[in-house]
Amino acid sequence: MYIGLDLGTSGLRALLADESGAIVATADAAYSVSNPHSGWSEQDPADWTAACEVVMAALKDAHPVEFSAVRGIGLSGHMHGATLLDAKGQVLRPCILWNDTRSAAQAAALNETPNVRCLSGNIVFPGFTAPKLKWVEENEPEIFAKVAKVLLPKDYLRYWLTGDYVGDMSDSAGTSWLDVGKREWSEELLDAGHMRLDQMPRLVEGSESSGNVRAQLLADWGMAGPVTVAGGGGDNAVAACGAGCFRDGDGFVSLGTSGVLLAAKNSFAPDPATAVHTFCHAVPDTWYQMGVILAATDSLNWLSGVLGRSPAELAGMLTDEPSGPSNTLFLPYLSGERTPHNDSAVRGSFAGLDVATTPEDMTQAVMEGVSFALRDNLDALKATGTKLSRILAIGGGTKSRFWLETLATTLNLPLDLPEKGDFGAALGAVRLAIAADTNADLSTIMTTPKVAATVEPRADLVDRYSESHARYRALYPHLKAALT
Questions:
Q1: Which of 6, 179, 235, 361 is labelled catalytic?
Q2: pLDDT tens per residue, range 354-378
Q3: Residues 148 and 88 in one domain
Q4: Does residue 235 carry a catalytic annotation?
Q5: Which residues contact 226 (CB under 8 A, 6 or more apart)?
Q6: Are 154 and 123 found together in one domain?
Q7: Distance between CA atoms of 419 and 425, rounded to whole angstroms?
Q8: Distance of alpha carbon 205 from alpha carbon 218, whole angstroms
Q9: 194 is in an annotated binding site
Q10: Does residue 42 lie within any of the structural domains?
Q11: Structural domain tally of the chain?
């Protein structure tokens, strides 16, 4: 038996599965995000370990026999977070999360440092880990002086599970400290950020073992042991493992809290100028390129809070089949934007509101705005030479048929929908745990899901959505100028 743990921004998801990857049970535990100042986003790492205790207890209570037979745990986590530990392994301050934008000035400075883009393969975004440490150095020097180790969020959970400081290639590729082509820490990149090699965890591939669960936890949980902990990876790379997306040309779109358009690559071919992320995959000798928008379903969640209606209620107002784009445009830059703008200061906007605008109109505009932002991502990926002929669609937003048809038509790509089941990061983590424990061939473990249905682009509406996307895209420079 195997467990996959997906450390998300709002909660921890756990899957208990057998050696074939078939899911036996699931458990979830929520925690909160702190926003003490505008642009700040933090979390207490103690909440992650407390959530892990909760989900483990739930799995054990529901399936005690299967739980006791667990042989491996895989980890997935939200990327770029800065968890700072002192020489005794104690947390020095709340973790600064991926969607925290306070270090924009530090990111810009690092981005202009010679060789940083070349070695890391990426623009230095404000959400990345390296500029966060520069911010701490400049604003909390007493804490910076005590930093003995920097761990990404899921690697702190690993430290609690195993007692070892270990990271993996895919998650570490989002720090701006990793030579992404060579898949190793770069002393030149670390020097640029005033960091040291001894402050970094040792690195393993996501499908390798990183150590075993501590004896005390095994006793507390009633596991026979030993239980290996796989290297795991950043959430999107691990979700790609769950979707069987690791061959060149495989791709998926995720309508989650953030939005992701990802394509697997069998070689390292970065193009930082496009603001496309080029990261190591969670499996050896593989990379991926990814466009990211910071607010996908989070945009609908925001509208839900403003209008006082649940996201499901808002989505239910719309028909299954769109009849064409709205006259109202929504730019989903609620926390700034990554691909293609690399702009932490821009903020969201509606354009074209009038006295007749209804909640239905606003909901449609939000779904279209997210789809247009993902079209920007597709255009950026194409600029790097990446080609996609069809993609798998996953994430909570895929529950809306209207959103799916809008997205397929905007991208002008067929969207394949997997059969019912969990094909996200938690399943990917299970698969990495199986790989780390058995050393089986990855192609036999990370199979693609059966396709339940395909949403085809609406040929009669492709041109109209393309025209509306052009109007959407033209608004960004004016919005940026208005906010400067």
A1: 235
A2: 999 999 999 999 999 999 999 999 9
A3: yes
A4: yes
A5: 71, 212, 213, 218
A6: yes
A7: 16
A8: 24
A9: no
A10: yes
A11: 2
